[in-house]
Amino acid sequence: MTYQMKIPSCLYGGEGCIDQIKEIIAKEKAQKVLVFTDKGIQNTGLLDILLGNLEEAKVTYRVFDDLKPEPAYQDVEVVMEEVHSCDGDLIVAMGGGSVMDAAKLCSVLKDADYTIRDLLKDPSLARKQRKTVMIPTTCGTGSEATCNAIVAVPEEQSKKGIVNDDMIPDYVILDGVTIAKLPKQIVAATGVDALAHAVECFTSKKATPFSDTYALASAKLIFANIREAYRNPDNMEAKNRMMLGAFYGGVAITGSGTTAVHALSYPLGGKYHIAHGVSNAILFAHVMEFNKEACEERLELLCDAIAPEICHKSRSEKAQYLIDQIADIVKLTDIPTNLEEFGVKMEDLDFLVEAGSQQQRLLVNNCKELSLEDIRNIYLKVLK
Ligand SMILES: NC(=O)c1ccc[n+]([C@@H]2O[C@H](COP(=O)([O-])OP(=O)(O)OC[C@H]3O[C@@H](n4cnc5c(N)ncnc54)[C@H](O)[C@@H]3O)[C@@H](O)[C@H]2O)c1
Ligand SMILES: [Zn+2]
Questions:
Q1: CA 130 from chain center: how many Å?
Q2: Domain coordinates of the chain in residue numbers?
Q3: How are beta strands 171-174 and 90-95 bridged, if at all?
Q4: Quick one: which of 55, 252, 220, 306 has its CA closest to 143?
Q5: Number of neighbouring beta carbons within 10 Å of residue 69
Q6: Pocket of ligand 1, candidates 41, 104, 141, 165: which has the most ligand atoms within 8 Å of its Cβ, to mutate?
Q7: What is the CATH superfamily name and number for domain 184-382?
Q8: 296-306 vs 315-332: helix crossing angle, rounded to 10
Q9: Ligand 1 centroid vs 143 CA: distance in angstroms?
Q10: 51, 76, 169, 284: least CB-packed within 10 angstroms?
Q11: Residue owning the nearest CA to atom 19 of ligand 1
């Protein structure tokens, strides 16, 4: 087997590294920066740190902050109309996955002769038009490491990933300061999303030695720090480790791929607007329980990495321990464990099964094939 993986070319890490944006600007000889962010981040004061640095670097900039969380592709089109009418030689995204994905799309759409609708039909058209700098402010999606951009497609009541190597970010700044004041429910939901990336990529049919290294490192960091990062928002050590864990999870996605948790989660985001991390968290342990028999050895390896103290137990016990830990984290961080509060009803089951089964891009990676009946049974477990 041969394998390959794309990673961003230049990484900055550690508290305070956000100031290195000046170095990037100098290196790129940038004159005008296009800054992507959203209103939620504006209110935290984080944007002021970034803009202060841009002013010190003596570049002009334009801020686009009209992005909605979990945007539909039409929302990105609206922003692109403004972006097209504006100069700019470097794109800087400061935000969660929603902002970073929109910025990555902008990096291939600006001045291009194809549109986002064309990319939804044929992602291979994308060509990088501007370099990008990603500054994540949640600890989950790992979008700062991936070639993916996910958008909602309202006509299909689901979400779709546009994936192209040209969307790999050029620079990544991982500064724990950006999640110091992240609301704890978002720490929890995005942290579980990162954990899902690690576990799904490690058990994926597409896993390779490259992706395994990052998936394992990610799982270790997130398992060890998510409870503390949730309970004690001032623990910066835990926050910095979550930041790294989320990034490694993203790298694992580019070398491997997520599986049935993410696949079945997309209709929940697309139709019911459940936050990405939350819909994954609701499904996570149930899908792994379904997968267990097909990936017991891999779950054992993960368990050995996160809980060496139980290395004497049997393979099956260790696999179960790992799944129980996932369920425990979801419960402990107060993420909903079923779909009740989101207004999803038993009558929605047929829609969910049909829409979930359409997510073949990810379902083909799952270590065990899912029949329509299997998909139905998994959704049934989270419907009340
Ligand atoms: N490209 C990829 O590889 C990839 C992978 C997984 C998920 N995604 C996508 O990413 C999106 C979800 O991203 P997300 O989970 O990071 O959340 P998000 O970007 O949607 O942000 C959620 C909310 O948190 C707020 N927020 C962000 N950072 C904050 C901070 N530091 N302080 C206070 N508030 C803050 C935002 O304003 C927003 O209201 C989904 O669309 C999902 O499909 C992409
Ligand atoms: Zn995810």
A1: 22
A2: 10-179, 184-382
A3: unpaired
A4: 252
A5: 16
A6: 141
A7: Dehydroquinate synthase-like - alpha domain (1.20.1090.10)
A8: 60
A9: 9
A10: 51
A11: 96
Full DSSP string of 116-138: HHHHHH-GGG----SEEEEEE-S
CA dist 214 to 136, 143, 324, Å?
A: 18, 14, 22
123 Cβ closer than 6 Å to some ligand 1 atom: no
Q: Which CATH number is 10-179's, of 3.40.50.720, 3.40.50.1970, 3.40.640.10, 3.30.1640.10?
A: 3.40.50.1970
For each successive 10 residues of the chain (384 residues), what is the average pLDDT?
94 95 98 96 94 98 93 96 94 97 98 97 98 96 96 91 97 95 96 98 98 98 97 94 97 97 95 96 98 98 96 97 98 95 95 96 98 98 92
Which residue owns the Cα nearest ligand 1 atom 37? 40
Question: Residue 262 carries which side chain, given as an amino acid letter?
Answer: H
Q: Is the CB of 186 under 6 A from ligand 1?
A: yes
Angle 63-158-98 from CA coordinates, rounded to 5°? 20
What is the phi/psi pair of residue 98, to 5°?
-65, -45
Residue 168 CA to ligand 1 centre (angstroms)? 18
